[in-house]
Write a structure and sequence with these properties.
alpha/beta, globular, binds 1-O-pyrophosphono-5-O-phosphono-alpha-D-ribofuranose, binds uracil
């Protein structure tokens, strides 16, 4: 079973509280999603490989640890996942970015695919799929399947808010995938929205309704 990591860092909890508030503006929502994406990315990249390198400081020669150069891909689930990409890219600016386009059918709540484009060497990359919301888990599970169909192997999923139902569905469908969650919520409502949640993440990021 993959790792399920729920953040308890005070900065993340504070920023998630601001995200949830219905009075938070579109601009602030966007800034917060980016900042939380970066804070989560800091932890989610903890296991990146290092290699030894010899350098000269102004004082002497020394051996230091530098990133081994493991290639990374960030894959947002359109459209709300885009809100977490810039925060991740500020940590790993050379990462490539793939996109999976999925929307939830309003009646069935099942994901419908409309776009998928991955870096050509996705099979060799460490992949972070990002989406603010893990509700039923259908979108995340389908996104992981699409990335695997394109050759992706080493996959981590990162979200801001997760319902227990979504965590269960994703970890059962893809037990090899690690899941990083900024906040774990109570449950879904009858429309498969997360409670207490933050509403519709895409609408709040882009000011649509
Ligand atoms: C939202 C969210 C996830 C999905 C989660 O996207 O960003 O992708 O719903 O729900 P699930 O876990 O039940 O599948 P939405 O379909 O609203 O599309 P959008 O990002 O384009 O607004
Ligand atoms: N998608 C959202 O944007 N919010 C939810 O609570 C559930 C799905």
């Amino acid at each position: 079973m993959g790792k399920i990591y729920v953040f308890d860092h005070p900065l993340i909890q504070h920023k998630v509280a601001l995200l949830r508030d219905e009075n938070t503006t579109t601009k602030d929502f966007r800034d917060l999603a980016k900042e939380i994406g970066m804070l989560m990315g800091y932890e989610a990249t903890r296991e990146l490989e290092l290699k030894k390198q010899t350098i000269k400081t102004p004082m002497c020669e020394t051996e230091v640890n530098v990133l081994a150069g493991e290639d990374i891909a960030i894959v947002p689930i359109l459209r709300a996942g885009l809100g977490m990409v810039d925060g991740m890219l500020s940590l790993v600016p050379n990462a490539k970015v793939g996109h999976v386009g999925l929307y939830r059918d309003p009646e069935t709540h099942k994901p419908v695919e409309y776009y998928c484009k991955m870096p050509q060497d996705i099979d060799k990359r460490k992949i972070f799929i990002v989406d603010p919301m893990l509700a039923t888990g259908g979108s995340a599970a389908d996104a992981v399947s699409l990335v695997k169909e394109k050759g992706g192997k080493d996959i981590t999923f990162m979200c801001l808010i997760a319902a227990p139902e979504g965590i269960k569905a994703l970890s059962e469908a893809h037990p090899d995938v690690d899941i990083y969650i900024a906040a774990k919520d109570e449950r879904l409502n009858e429309n498969a929205y997360i409670l207490p949640g933050l509403g519709d993440a895409g609408d709040r990021l882009y000011g649509t309704k």
